């Protein structure tokens, strides 16, 4: 069973594949209850018996970890096997636009469209999608999780605000015909040209979007900004207006919009700060791109998108950003696209999936509180992204991106526009994700979702109560906190055995100058009182909470020599470690 490095050498000696310089099972992390060597692959594959042994270990490992899973906002209650098991042997590919079937016929796009319609309703968008109706929604089921939805949203926002245009190219056919005289066949591609709108006189910043997000933002937003070459208010402010920080005149700019103890609890974006920062750039003619969090990763806070929009609209009006003309034909001043000079993206990875049902529960007087409005009811919301594997639960990461048809980059007001099917980020797309989401929604009702939301709320209250009782029992503060309506509860960091057992995620916060290591749990639909009780039992044992060295003052973050290029880019991400 224990195949060593010699085994590899003998097996692979006739192939042209290279050899490891030493056995990789000593080079990679070891894992409790897994014999890594049993999983090594070689040129001959494994015998049936070896494979069965390895798979038995896999099954045992995942079953145990699943049963105790508490640390992340990933629902472990899955029920897809009966309906979808056969489709592991199908390659289902939803390549291209979900509303155009295309020639790759092994797809599940009609199911994808049903899923999109479902969320269009729940998020109060206009449906069905209609390419001729700009107010109707457009979206797709992403192959990654919410990260892809955020990346796509910011990409769309960047091009929209930066005055990028997609124009039809009419010369393709003639070019291909002429080129084919050379003797080589020429393929005829229907092409769109990616263009930059004409600069606007006296408005040098008109096509330089400025990005805003709060200090509780998920790292995928920051990553997307870097991939897309976007600049934050901090980068532009610190570089071009170093002494004009509107939040603290004369002081360096803050890297992100401050978060606050808002009505929706700690961790939501501080609207007065946001307004001051946005006004500074709007007054200079910069288009504004704001990423809101709807359920922050660590504290589970909800940005009040509606209050932010209401506070900002008069500013956009004042500086002509509520609507502007983007000219695309130098010879014809009547050719322009009407666009907003701002974009509101809502990162609703977890919250967008369940807050609509909390609202329904609230309307039915089944719960005392609801989250702020965030969806397409708000005329200023441009795009929403959501993870499919978090609230809903799925065997693989998946999610949804949704916007309005009029915000898609496409040939402006061109009645002949047929549509580039290549509207999505990925080329090949995971058709299984759409089937999974469809299967879930086909088995649930709004009533079922409301019950699920109420259940998790009740379970979160239960966990808080049990942790508070434990505090009493231990006679020490465990720093237990929960943002109202959030599904996450944070408390003092436990020992590594407990962290591993429950897959707890960790975060370090400074509180009044004191460095504190926290864990948090997420109360998803699979969490039961038994699981919480079991955690409490483990936390009650001596040594459950290792003592933490306290640091009097947070260390200064060393500035680089070129602070103007400094992006605040967490190495490990926020919450997901
Ligand atoms: C989880 C999360 C993401 C990223 O989603 P993935 O599905 O992991 O790609 C983005 N934003 C927030 C607020 C999240 O909680």
From TrEMBL:
Keyword Lyase (UniProt): yes
Bias (Polar residues): 13-22
MF GO annotations: aromatic-L-amino-acid decarboxylase activity; pyridoxal phosphate binding
Superkingdom as given in the UniProt entry: Bacteria
Basic and acidic residues biased stretches: 1-12
Cofactor dependency: pyridoxal 5'-phosphate
Keywords annotated in UniProt: Decarboxylase, Lyase, Pyridoxal phosphate
Region listing for Disordered, in residue ranges: 1-22
Pfam families in the record: Pyridoxal_deC
N6-(pyridoxal phosphate)lysine, modified sites: 390
GO process terms (BP): carboxylic acid metabolic process
Family, as annotated: Belongs to the group II decarboxylase family.
Protein name in the entry: Histidine decarboxylase
Source organism per UniProt: Leptolyngbya boryana NIES-2135
